[in-house]
Amino acid sequence: MPPAAANKWIVFALVATGIFMSTLDSSIVNVALPVIMSDLNVSMSVIEWVVVIYLLTISSLLLTFGRLSDIKGRLWVYYRGFLIFTIGSFCCGISQGVGWLIAARAIQAIGAAMLMACSPALVVDTFSPAERGKALGMVGTVVAAGLTTGPALGGVIINLYSWRGIFYINIPIGIAACMMAQKILKGSSADLTRKESLDWWGAMMLILCFAPLFTAVTRAVDWGYKSYLLWILIGISIGGLIGLVRIESRARYPIFSPSLLRLRLFALPVAAAVVLFACLFIIVFLMPFFLVHSAGFPIEKVGGIMIIPFVFLFIVAPFSGSLSDRIGSQWLCTVGLLLMGLSLFTIALLPPNASFTAIAWRLGLAGIGTAIFIPPNSSTAMGAVSPQYRGIASGTVATARNLGMVMGVSLAGLIFNGVFQRTSGGQSFKAYHQGLEPFFMTAFKAAMYSGFILAIIGAVLAFLRGKENSSHATIDA
Questions:
Q1: Looking at CB atoms within 10 Å, which of 13, 248, 392, 447 has the fewest?
Q2: Rounded CA gap, 36 and 47, in Å?
Q3: Residue 413's closest CA among 25, 56, 21, 22?
Q4: pTM for the full model?
Q5: 292 and 347 in contact (C-beta within 8 Å)?
Q6: Which residues, 6 or more positions from 475, have their beta carbon under 8 angstroms from its beta carbon?
């Protein structure tokens, strides 16, 4: 436990700072995508990489940094995460082209991965089992605060200054957080180290699993499904997965323990989390384009509209976390995914000239579903493993979240671009005009209906976890 000078709520405040900064950046960028696409004169299939590279880099590195935090200590990883994230934000702000921006986002994502890998483990290390649901529910509130502030603040910054300003705001927060981490975590249990080695081969296999796969998915429409390069990348990804399983099953100090997947109350919540966040980010990625182009809202109002799901997340998440401490996660997580599915289905029914009210309650459903799902799901997954595996478990839970996000963006881009090109006679979505509205709406609806089907699959996975029992928190992976 942390020393007296750094009690659990001070540690929580530090964790909250890192979470707030990373979620603020994510939500601001999504709102800015239509503006960045226009300013840099690129197509949607290119601009989506500003989001994809960020989420893909995080997903590829979270387990590595979760394991590294077990070896080097949470402080060692957390402090450097703040530093790298801040440097990456500065590079994004000064970028001179889309290639520079995408590369800078990758740097930023390395720092974000270091922060995210440590955050759940720091909370679980600090709070007792009886308080974990409540604490993780409050983490959900912080996530909601960052996601809620981001779109509204982003709309104001873009309107008054430029999209570059959305990256500059991270710099003072990052500097202050670096100073906090050094002071608060120094000498705490988060600062302890272990004499173990990092599984570098396993880390490399993780990158080979994710990077080629999502590159193939996002470029499939442009390259064509018969492209040799497309299938080579998919083959590399499959080879990386096979290599990961073989290496990790034999490694003395694995970056990921395959035995964790045998724990029902860990594996199924992780799988359900991937689905939930994929569904959420189908909405988060495509809705700003719908609001700007089809519905005709100005960018400053788009930011205000896109905070709606996260306002509900802010309000509902603490209650969901506390309730899960009493009734468990099975029904809460199932209901959460069903509400997400209902949101996607009803969004698909929106007309191009939809009113604010019609849009708002549909986005509200997505926020309520997410808020009901996240705290009990995280509490169950993190409580299902023994303390020495919490760094790995923490990295896995965070990987599931970000893998879901990148899957959502990639799936949305794949379906939208594919349907748009097919219905428009081979055009790519780059500069919107009124004549493209029928093709845009057809592609938009197809992506939302796909998300609805995915949410139903996720609800089944959430229900199949069954009920927690009193001994699940002491299971040793």
A1: 13
A2: 8
A3: 56
A4: 0.75
A5: no
A6: 263, 265, 384, 385, 386
